[in-house]
Amino acid sequence: MSQIAPQNIVILISGGGSNMAAIVKAAEQGGWQEKYGARIAAVISNKADAKGLVFAREHGIATAVVDHKAYASREEFDAELARVIDGFDPKLVVLAGFMRILTPGFVDRYLGRMVNIHPSLLPAFPGLHTHQRAIDYGCKFAGVTVHRVTAELDHGEFLDQAVVPVLPDDTADSLAARVLTQEHLIYPRAVERLLAAGR
Ligand code: GRF
Asked: Which InterPro entries is this protein grouped with (predicted)?
């Protein structure tokens, strides 16, 4: 049997973790271990009560919490986060609803192997409240972008995008739900393409 170099994936979350769950299911159902030597090595949260941690544990995935409130500065938090991430020897660091601004040093450390999903059609609407901003702007279409992480917030090479219509009676919540459905399709797909390329 040929040996495939291991491709460990570390996923960072802050909340529900539905994108993380979509990636975990894609890995399980798509045989990523066999095809790409890939496994979800850990799910790490900055919040101990992040619901996604329960899902990860139920799927036999190692979890860790690095609580940002326990650190005096972003640099100290990021240093500890990097220490924990590196313990899982990551080929890919996947940000999935991880709601922290990252320091330049942290971004540099994982440059080329860290990806993010942002719920807008970048370069439109980087930052927070994307759905309300798209509605307020009168956008007829909204969407989601998977991109590599670089020092500039919500920038970096686009790996995939999906588009949804903005409907006349949309609220931020209804639009977010429509976009999230697409997130769950394109994020696993983008990660799988990186794994196939890195095999
Ligand atoms: C998603 O909309 C993601 O794009 C954004 O935060 C949300 C997280 O959702 N960055 P979940 O935690 O993956 O359910």
From this structure: Formyl_transf_N, Formyl_transf_N_sf, GART, GART_AS
Percent of the chain topping pLDDT 70: 98
Do residues 69 and 76 lie in contact, with contact meaning Cβ atoms separated by under 8 Å? no
Average pLDDT, the chain: 96
What confidence tier does 199 reach under pLDDT thresholds 50, 70, 90? confident
Which pairs count as long-range contacts for 123-127, CB under 8 Å and 24+ apart, including other chains? 123/155, 126/153, 126/154, 126/155, 127/153, 127/154
Closest among 134, 62, 52 to 95, alpha carbons compared: 52
Shortest-distance Cα residue to atom 8 of ligand 1: 97
Q: Is 18 in the pocket of ligand 1 (CB under 6 A)?
A: yes
- Known binding positions: 17-19, 74, 99-102, 116
Q: Above 70 in pLDDT, residue 1?
A: no
Flag whether pLDDT at 85 surpasses 60.
yes
Going from the N-terminus, what domains does the chain have, and what CATH number goes with each? 7-198 (3.40.50.170)
